[in-house]
Every structure is written in C-alpha cells, then in structure tokens.
Fold this protein.
Amino acid sequence: DSGVTQTPKHLITATGQRVTLRCSPRSGDLSVYWYQQSLDQGLQFLIHYYNGEERAKGNILERFSAQQFPDLHSELNLSSLELGDSALYFCASSVLAGSNTGELFFGEGSRLTVL
Amino acid sequence: EDQVTQSPEALRLQEGESSSLNCSYTVSGLRGLFWYRQDPGKGPEFLFTLYSAGEEKEKERLKATLTKKESFLHITAPKPEDSATYLCAVQARGADGLTFGKGTHLIIQP
C-alpha cells in the first residue's frame, strides 16, 4: 500500500460528459502529480501541484483541469469527454517540490471508460 | 523531445533464468533515470534512481546500470513473484514530470 488513495476506482460515462477524479496523497507529501496511462501511449505526465500551487504542466488537454486544496487532496476534472480519453489516471505524491529522486508514490489509479 | 524506448516489449523466462531488460533514452540533459515495477491493476512502484553513467544500484535479484545512452535492468535467478511490467523513465534537467517508456512485460514461469 503506497498510502496514496484514489477514487473512484472505476468510472463509466458517455461522450460529452464531465467527471472528477480525486486523490489523497500520502500523509506529509506536499506534491501531487497526475499521469494518464493508455495502451498505446504509456504513462504520460499531465500536471504537478505543490502545496496548493500549480508547478508544471505536461501533456494536459485544455478540456482537463486540476486543483489542489488546502488539505492537500487533489482533483482532476475531465470535461467534454471523448472516446480517446478512456484510460487509467494515476495520482502520485512525493515530499519534495520536484521529483528530485524520481521516487513517486502512485495510487492504484482510476479507470475511466468513455462510451 | 525526450524519448524512452524499452525492449523487449515482453519476455518470458523460466524460474532461475537470468536476463536483462533494456531502456534506451534521449534526453536534453539527464537529471535522473528511474526504474519502476507495475503489477496488474496497481500503480507503479519505485525501484531505483540512477544519476550518472557508470552508476549501479541493486535490490535483491535486480541490478540497474546506466550508460550515456541506455540503462539495463539485470534480473538474476528470477522467481515467479518477479513477474510484472518494468517501466523506465527519465527526467531532464529543469523538467518536472517524468517521461516513461512503454515497459517490458516480464513473465517468470515456475
């Protein structure tokens, strides 16, 4: 158990809809990262938050947004969903502002299916 | 653009049969190269960080090595519980997120 909690584990929705994925980092970790994992693309970095502030964006679509709240939990919002958004979405946390050691603690992911 | 290519895509070994997984990378100034293990239905689990060519790290039956263009994950006398997908990732200097390869799916048969 990594200590990172993600909900929901599974989500099925229709094209055009909006969903919110939630992540609670390990106790004491200030950084939260979101990654998308699909069969053809592998793990893709989406966005990084540190102590409530956005630190970096990766390959995140404009239809997607995220935030980190004062209690350090984070939410990833996906809107105007398309079939291609079906994937596993992982949250990872670390103590440091940057992944200096590369040691990220990943949750078990939220599997999104868009029909 | 940073790129990571892992080979082979899949590997089936007999228990006790040692082998190596390859990770080739191109990055604009390497900050670190990382190995993760991912079990089905789980998130990746951190294994190693390597920072410079010539560096080696070991953990149980796993040993990771790094050159200027590639990294190897050597598995010595593997056991069925070593079956997993092994992911390689790089981080460029000044970058925040990691760039992952697509992984090697390793199966160890008893």
User: Anything to note?
Assistant: The mean pLDDT of chain A is 93. The CA atoms of residues 48 and 56 of chain A lie 5 Å apart.
